[in-house]
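User: VOC family protein, Streptomyces flavidovirens:
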Amino acid sequence: MTEAATRRRTPGAPCWVSLMVHGLATTQEFYGALFGWEFRPGPQQLGPYVRAMLDGKEIAGIGQLPPDRHLPIAWTPYLATDDADVTAESIRSHGGTVGVGPLDAGDAGRMAIGSDPSGAVFGVWQAAGHLGTALAGTHGTPVWNELMTRETSTVGKFYAAVFGYEVEPGASADFDQLTLRLDGRPVASVRGVGQALPRDRGAHWMTYFEVADTDESARLVRELGGQVLRPPHDAATGRAAAVSDPEGAVFTLVTTAAG
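Assistant: Predicted structure for VOC family protein:
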């Protein structure tokens, strides 16, 4: 395992993942059992909120939606910025929207939640006291983010313009895929799935969590009241399974090939 946040992230780098749910206590039970997370209170600007911890280090955030808010339940990646207000303006000027903020999250930092032109939701994080996910490469930590969208070219230009990514087309002409790089290092990917995009979800970001054993973790998801949407299978990144938690938040379990 490695320390992941001893310094500020490069602008554009994924730095945090957060989930908003209706049942905060039951969601903590699910992820605590699945990933071994423990929980501490976090900033309460948007309501009850906890930070998931491993070995005393911050991994992810889970907040509680107001009872009258029926938003999609989904893991949301946060992308680092040196200035959330400037980034929010750039999102708007390049065809995206800003739904929340920018606003201060106590002394932790400044945040905004936006969506790209295809409707996929993501966060923006300007770090102050809280730098983001502080552990990588071990069971229960975010390992990758992939945007699932209809086609990659238009949305790829949006992220390149707003966050300065170098956009690299996939090697195969059979797959509509892009890799987003910062300083030559891959930080996220974009996959165009055309009409296969779920109508009920639309374009969305997918968070991959590292696990010690994908098959065992997928079995545990079912046991804990979640669903296995795509059973464990061997992929280019390792052994993966697409699953959802009891409230329907979709994520991918992966035991990376190098893990």
